[in-house]
Amino acid sequence: MTKNDNFFDKVYDVARQIPFGRVTSYGAIATYLGSARSARMVGWAMNNSGNQQPEVPAHRVVNKKGLLTGKHHFDGTNLMQQLLESEGIKVIDNQIQDLDTVFWNPMNEL
DNA sequence: ATTGTGACGTTGC
DNA sequence: TGCAACGCCACAA
Fold first, then answer.
1. What is the DSSP letter of A55?
2. Distance CA A96 to C1' C5 in A
3. Which residues make up the interface with nucleic strand B when CB must lie under 7 A?
């Protein structure tokens, strides 16, 4: 932690900028950061997101398919889905509905 | 320095 | 159109 996790920090920063009721994909963030091929790294960064003080809305970050792939990493089993549903996002079987509508593209907004 | 892994994405068949 | 395999970058051991 002594070093500035440039990549990680950026991921957290973008994730925190996700508006309420919106979601984004790892690839979108990775692409915005310039490392479109590091989509996996974005997810890896989320691993430490819980360690970050400004709690990163990792529940708003899903894969391109809108699938809650990382929900397994949350406390509960359906916690991530509960959070998304609380924001008005319809999630069925770990799959976000109307993804095109709730999708938030950092490149488009930022 | 090398190897392995990972909450993904894209291309190929 | 659906499923499989590869690629890829960054971090940890």
1. -
2. 26
3. A 25-28, 30, 38-44, 46-47, 49-50, 58, 61, 63-65, 69-70, 72-74
pTM of full prediction above 0.85? yes
Digitized pLDDT (tens) for each residue of chain A, 110 residues in all = 444 668 888 899 999 999 999 999 999 999 998 888 889 999 999 988 988 888 899 999 999 999 999 988 898 788 999 999 999 999 998 899 999 899 999 998 88
Q: Is A69 (CB) below 7 Å from strand C?
A: no
CATH match for A6-102 among 1.10.10.10, 1.10.260.40, 3.40.630.30, 3.40.1160.10: 1.10.10.10
Residue whose CA is minimally distant from C10 C1': A41
Query: How far is the first Cα of chain A from the last one, in angstroms, to the nearest whole number?
Result: 27
Domain ranges of chain A: 6-102
Q: Which residues, listed in sequence order, are joined to residue A25 by a DSSP beta bridge?
A: A62
Tokens of A29: 């963030």
Other beta carbons within 10 Å of A39 = 19
